[in-house]
C-alpha cells in the first residue's frame, strides 16, 4: 500500500458560529451523517453574544474531508463562520464529574491524595456521596476514573470538548460588530404546545 | 370553547396595521413577491390557506395538480423556463412527503422553489396527530432552507426570507411549514417587505480581483484552453457575458446538460455536450487541454468519469458562486469565487483576443469521426425501425430550435439533450442531478405557465411517462398547451442498455408493457396519435405542433437501440466508446 500518499486521519476541532435557530443542529449533523462520519464530541452553547451560538465539533478525519465538510457547514443559511483546527492549534478542555461514596473518601486517605493529585474539586458533599469535578484532556480524566473505580465509583460523566483557537483573533470582534449593526431575532418556540384543548379542536 | 379560541386569535401587538389571518397575510406576501401561478393540492392542514385563496383568484392563479410530486415538478418547470421562483402548496403528512423527490431534484439542480406545507395545530406537534409528520427534519437534507411557523406573526418575515434564500446566490428549494392555528390566527399585519439581506447568509462570495488576474494570465498563456460551462451561466443571467468571453478569447466550449442552450448549438465555438453520453471530442480532449476553465458547473461524476484520470494534465480555473464547489471534486489551480455575471466581464476585459483555430479544428475532427461512426445513422437511419434521434431531428426541422424542450430521464433524455436544436437559453428543462423519472410531464406543464408565449414540447420515455401520468388530468383541467412526445421502445431503455453492455444481456425486469397511451389521453380529453412508421413521422409532428392545445404523440422506436458515445462507469473520459 502506498502509505506516502494515503491521507492521514487525525483529530480536528471544528468551530461553528451560528444563529440561535431551531433545527440547525440537525442540519449540521446531517452533513456528517451523509458522509458517514462519526462525531466524536459535540458541544453547543450560547456564545459571548446573545443570539449567536458556538458549536465545537471534534471528528477524526483527513484534512481534505474536513475542509469539504467545513465548507458545507458554512453554506448553511444560519451559519456565520466556521473554522477547523488540529489539536496543536487549539487549547481544549473537557470537564468530568465523579460521584463516589463519601465514607470511602473519608476513610481512605489514599483516595483523598488521589483526588488532590488530580486537582479534583468537591462540588457537593452529602452523607451518602460526594461529587468531584476535574477538567482536562481525555487521558487525564480517564486516569482518574480508572483510579477511582476500585473505591466504588458510583457515577461518572464527561462533557464534550470545548476549544479555543490559539492563533486567530477569534470571532469576538466581528460578532460584536454584527450584534451592534444587526441584533439577532428572538427564537419563536412553540408556545401552544401545552395549551392542548384550551386552544383549538379539529 | 369560543372564548378560548378568541384568546389565541386576538393580536397581542398594538393596533397599527390591519387585522388579517395568517393565511391572508401569506397570500398578500405572495402577491408582493410577484407570484402569478401556484401549483398545489389542498388538504385538511392547509385548508385555511385554500379558503383565503378563494378570494385571491384574480391575483393568484392556482393549478390543481393530481399529485404533490407533480406539483413540485411543475413548480420546477415554471422556475426553469421563467427564471422566477416556483411556488407549491401541499398539505401536511403525505402531502408534504410527496414533495420530497421534487425538493431533492430542485436541490441538486439549484432550482428556486418555495413550498408551503400545512401542518397540524401547534399544540398537536409531536403527538402523531392525524397527518402529522416531522416535515422539517424530513426535508432538511433536500432544502436550501426550511422553517416551521407556529405563530401567524412570523409569516411575513419568514416568507420574505424564503423568497430571498430561494432565488439569491446559488438558488434552491425552500420549504415553509405552517401550523393550522397560525393560518387561522388573526394578527396585526403591518405590510409585507421583501427581504434583501440576512445576517448569517452570504449569497455571493466577494470577488477576489487577484484570482481573476491569475485566471486571465493562465488563459492568455494557454495553447489549448477549453471551457466547460454549466447551468450557473443561466442562473446568473450571464449568457451575454459568457458569449462575450468565449468570443473574445476564442476558446472551444462544451456544456453540461443543464447548461444547454446558453449559446446556440451552431455557434462556431460550441463544441458539444460533456459527460457520459456527451460528444466524443469534448470528452477526449478534456484530457488533452492545457487550461480547463469551468464556468458555473460542478464537475458532476456523470461529467468527469473517473476523477483520478480526469484532466490531470490541465491547470484548472473554476468560476463558481458556491465556495463549497471549489475543490470538491476537481482540484483547482485558480478558484474564481463569485457570480459569473460579475466575474466573467472582469475576466473578459483581461483576456487577449485570440483564435485557437488549430485547436478548434481538433474538435471538428472528432466531430467528423462521431458523425461517421454513429450520428448519421442515428439521425438519418437506414434501418427499418425509427430511432429516437431521427424523431428529435425531425422536430428540430419544425421548431427550428425555438421550442422549450422538457425531457424525462433515460435514453430519450440523453438523445434529446444531444440532438435537440436550441437557439435560446432556458430551453432545455430536464432532471440532471437526481435523474427523476416522472419529471417531464408535470415539469412541462409548469414550463408552459412560466413561458406562455413559447412552444413547449415534452419528450418522455414509455417508462417515465407512467410515473406521473396522472398529470394528464392537470393538463385537461387547466387547458395548458403542452405537446407530449412519447418515445416508446417498450423497454426501460437505459437500464436495458446497461444490462446489455455490462450484465451480459440479462434483461432483468426492464421489459415494460404500456397502456394505449392515445386512449389514455383521450380519456383525459387530450388529442393524440400513435405512429410506428417513418413515413408518418413528419406529418404527425407537424400536426402535433399545429394542433390547438395539448397533444400526445406516441412514436414507436427501435426496441434495442443504445445511446452512444458512452463513457462506461469507472472509466476515464478519454475512454469514451463510440459503439
UniProtKB/TrEMBL annotation, chain A:
User: What Enzyme Commission number does this protein have?
Assistant: 2.2.1.6
This protein's assembly is summarised as: Dimer of large and small chains.
**Which keywords accompany this UniProt record?**
Amino-acid biosynthesis, Branched-chain amino acid biosynthesis, Transferase
| Chain ranges of the ACT domain | 13-87
Asked if Amino-acid biosynthesis is a keyword of the record, the answer is yes
InterPro entries documented for this protein: Acetalactate_synth_ssu, Acetolactate_synth/TF_NikR_C, Acetolactate_synth_ssu_C, ACT-like_dom_sf, ACT_dom, AHAS_ACT, AHAS_small-like_ACT
Which family does the record assign? Belongs to the acetolactate synthase small subunit family.
> Which EC class, in a word?
transferase
**A single Pfam family, by name?**
ACT_AHAS_ss
> Hey, which pathway is this one from?
Amino-acid biosynthesis; L-valine biosynthesis; L-valine from pyruvate: step 1/4; Amino-acid biosynthesis; L-isoleucine biosynthesis; L-isoleucine from 2-oxobutanoate: step 1/4
What this protein is called in its record is: acetolactate synthase
- Cellular compartments per GO CC: cytosol
Catalysis: reaction(s): 2 pyruvate + H(+) = (2S)-2-acetolactate + CO2
GO function term, MF aspect, one: acetolactate synthase regulator activity
> Which GO BP terms apply?
isoleucine biosynthetic process; L-valine biosynthetic process
Q: Which organism is it from?
A: Arcticibacter tournemirensis
UniProtKB/TrEMBL annotation, chain B:
UniProt record similarity statement: Belongs to the TPP enzyme family.
Name the top EC class: transferase
Q: What region holds the Thiamine pyrophosphate enzyme central domain?
A: 212-345
Keywords on this record?
Amino-acid biosynthesis, Branched-chain amino acid biosynthesis, Magnesium, Metal-binding, Thiamine pyrophosphate, Transferase
| GO cellular component terms, semicolon-separated | acetolactate synthase complex
Q: In which pathway does it act?
A: Amino-acid biosynthesis; L-valine biosynthesis; L-valine from pyruvate: step 1/4; Amino-acid biosynthesis; L-isoleucine biosynthesis; L-isoleucine from 2-oxobutanoate: step 1/4
What is the organism field in this record? Arcticibacter tournemirensis
Record-linked SUPFAM superfamilies: DHS-like NAD/FAD-binding domain, Thiamin diphosphate-binding fold (THDP-binding)
Q: What is this protein called?
A: Acetolactate synthase
A molecular function GO annotation = flavin adenine dinucleotide binding
Q: Name one Pfam family in it.
A: TPP_enzyme_N
| Cofactor, how bound (note) | Binds 1 Mg(2+) ion per subunit. Binds 1 thiamine pyrophosphate per subunit.
List the catalysed reactions. 2 pyruvate + H(+) = (2S)-2-acetolactate + CO2
Query: Which example biological process does GO assign this protein?
Result: isoleucine biosynthetic process
Q: What is its EC number?
A: 2.2.1.6
Query: Could you say which cofactors this protein requires?
Result: Mg(2+); thiamine diphosphate
Keyword Transferase included in the entry's annotation: yes
The chain positions of domain Thiamine pyrophosphate enzyme N-terminal TPP-binding read: 21-136
Stretches assigned to the Thiamine pyrophosphate enzyme TPP-binding domain: 408-555
List the NCBIfam families. acolac_lg (TIGR00118)
Amino acid at each position: 500500500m502506498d502509505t506516502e500518499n494515503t491521507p492521514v486521519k487525525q483529530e480536528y476541532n471544528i468551530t461553528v458560529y451560528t444563529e440561535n435557530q431551531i433545527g440547525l443542529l440537525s442540519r449540521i449533523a446531517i452533513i456528517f451523517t451523509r458522509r458517514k462520519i462519526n462525531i466524536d464530541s459535540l458541544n453547543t452553547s450560547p456564545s459571548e453574544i446573545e443570539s449567536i451560538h458556538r458549536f465545537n465539533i471534534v471528528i477524526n478525519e483527513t484534512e481534505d474531508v474536513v475542509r469539504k465538510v467545513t465548507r458545507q457547514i458554512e453554506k448553511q443559511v444560519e451559519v456565520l463562520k466556521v473554522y477547523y483546527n488540529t489539536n496543536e492549534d487549539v487549547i481544549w478542555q473537557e470537564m468530568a464529574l465523579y460521584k463516589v461514596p463519601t465514607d470511602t473518601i473519608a476513610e481512605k486517605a489514599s483516595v483523598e491524595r488521589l483526588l488532590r493529585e488530580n486537582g479534583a474539586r468537591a462540588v457537593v458533599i452529602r452523607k451518602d456521596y460526594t461529587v468531584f469535578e476535574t477538567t482536562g484532556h481525555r487521558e487525564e480524566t480517564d486516569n482518574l476514573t480508572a483510579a477511582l473505580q476500585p473505591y466504588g465509583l458510583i457515577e461518572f460523566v464527561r462533557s464534550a470538548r470545548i476549544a479555543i483557537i490559539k492563533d486567530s483573533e477569534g470571532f469576538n470582534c466581528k460578532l460584536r460588530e454584527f450584534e451592534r449593526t444587526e441584533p439577532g431575532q428572538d427564537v419563536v418556540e412553540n408556545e401552544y404546545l401545552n395549551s392542548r384543548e384550551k386552544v383549538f379542536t379539529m | 370553547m369560543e372564548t378560548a379560541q378568541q384568546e389565541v386569535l386576538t393580536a397581542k401587538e398594538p393596533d397599527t396595521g390591519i387585522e388579517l389571518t395568517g393565511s391572508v397575510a401569506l397570500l398578500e406576501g405572495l402577491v408582493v413577491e410577484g407570484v402569478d401561478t401556484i401549483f398545489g393540492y389542498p388538504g385538511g392542514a392547509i385548508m385555511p390557506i385554500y379558503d383565503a385563496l378563494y378570494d385571491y383568484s384574480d391575483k393568484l392563479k392556482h393549478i390543481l395538480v393530481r399529485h404533490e410530486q407533480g406539483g413540485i415538478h411543475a413548480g420546477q418547470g415554471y422556475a426553469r423556463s421563467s427564471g422566477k421562483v416556483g411556488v407549491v402548496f401541499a398539505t401536511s403528512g403525505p402531502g408534504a412527503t410527496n414533495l420530497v423527490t421534487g425538493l431533492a431534484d430542485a436541490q441538486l439542480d439549484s432550482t428556486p422553489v418555495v413550498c408551503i406545507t400545512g401542518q397540524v395545530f401547534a399544540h398537536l406537534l409531536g403527538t402523531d396527530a392525524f397527518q402529522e409528520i416531522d416535515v422539517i427534519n424530513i426535508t432538511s437534507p433536500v432544502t436550501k432552507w426550511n422553517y416551521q411557523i407556529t405563530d401567524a406573526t412570523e409569516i411575513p418575515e419568514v416568507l420574505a426570507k424564503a423568497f430571498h434564500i430561494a432565488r439569491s446566490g446559488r438558488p434552491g428549494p425552500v420549504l415553509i411549514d405552517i401550523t393550522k392555528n397560525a393560518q387561522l390566527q388573526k394578527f396585526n399585519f403591518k405590510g409585507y417587505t421583501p427581504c434583501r439581506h440576512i445576517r448569517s447568509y452570504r449569497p455571493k462570495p466577494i470577488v477576489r480581483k487577484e484570482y481573476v488576474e491569475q485566471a486571465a494570465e493562465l488563459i492568455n498563456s494557454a495553447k489549448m484552453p477549453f471551457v466547460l460551462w454549466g447551468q450557473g451561466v443561466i442562473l446568473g443571467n450571464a449568457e451575454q457575458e459568457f458569449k462575450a468571453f468565449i468570443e473574445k478569447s476564442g476558446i472551444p466550449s462544451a456544456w453540461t446538460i443543464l447548461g444547454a442552450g446558453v449559446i446556440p448549438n451552431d455557434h462556431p465555438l460550441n463544441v458539444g455536450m460533456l459527460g457520459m453520453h456527451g460528444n466524443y471530442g469534448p470528452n477526449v480532449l478534456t484530457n488533452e487541454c492545457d487550461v480547463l476553465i469551468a464556468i458555473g458547473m460542478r464537475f458532476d461524476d456523470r461529467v468527469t468519469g473517473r476523477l483520478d484520470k480526469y484532466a490531470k494534465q490541465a491547470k484548472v480555473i473554476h468560476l463558481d458562486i458556491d465556495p463549497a464547489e471549489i475543490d470538491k471534486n476537481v482540484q483547482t489551480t485558480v478558484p474564481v469565487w463569485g457570480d459569473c455575471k460579475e466575474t466573467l466581464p472582469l475576466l473578459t476585459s483581461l483576456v487577449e483576443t485570440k483564435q485557437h483555430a488549430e485547436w478548434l479544428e481538433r474538435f471538428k475532427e472528432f466531430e467528423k469521426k462521431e458523425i461517421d461512426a454513429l450520428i448519421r445513422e442515428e439521425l438519418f437511419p437506414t434501418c427499418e425501425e425509427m430511432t429516437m434521434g431521427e424523431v428529435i431531428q425531425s422536430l428540430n426541422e419544425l421548431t427550428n430550435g425555438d421550442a422549450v424542450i422538457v425531457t424525462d430521464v433515460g435514453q430519450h433524455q440523453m438523445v434529446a439533450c444531444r440532438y435537440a436544436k436550441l437557439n435560446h437559453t432556458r430551453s432545455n428543462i430536464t432532471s440532471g442531478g437526481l435523474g427523476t423519472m416522472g419529471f417531464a410531464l408535470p415539469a412541462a406543464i409548469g414550463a408552459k405557465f412560466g413561458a406562455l408565449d413559447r412552444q413547449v414540447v415534452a419528450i418522455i420515455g414509455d417508462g417515465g411517462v407512467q410515473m406521473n401520468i396522472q398529470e394528464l388530468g392537470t393538463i385537461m383541467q387547466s387547458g395548458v398547451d403542452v405537446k407530449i412526445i412519447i418515445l416508446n421502445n417498450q423497454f426501460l431503455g437505459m437500464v436495458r442498455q446497461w444490462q446489455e453492455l455490462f450484465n451480459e444481456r440479462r434483461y432483468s425486469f426492464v421489459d415494460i408493457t404500456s397502456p394505449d397511451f392515445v386512449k389514455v389521453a383521450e380519456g383525459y380529453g387530450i388529442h393524440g396519435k400513435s405512429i410506428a412508421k417513418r413515413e408518418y413521422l413528419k406529418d404527425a409532428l407537424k400536426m402535433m405542433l399545429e394542433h390547438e392545445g395539448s397533444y400526445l404523440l406516441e412514436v414507436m422506436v427501435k426496441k434495442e437501440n443504445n445511446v452512444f458515445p458512452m463513457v462506461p462507469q469507472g472509466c476515464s473520459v478519454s475512454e469514451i466508446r463510440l459503439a
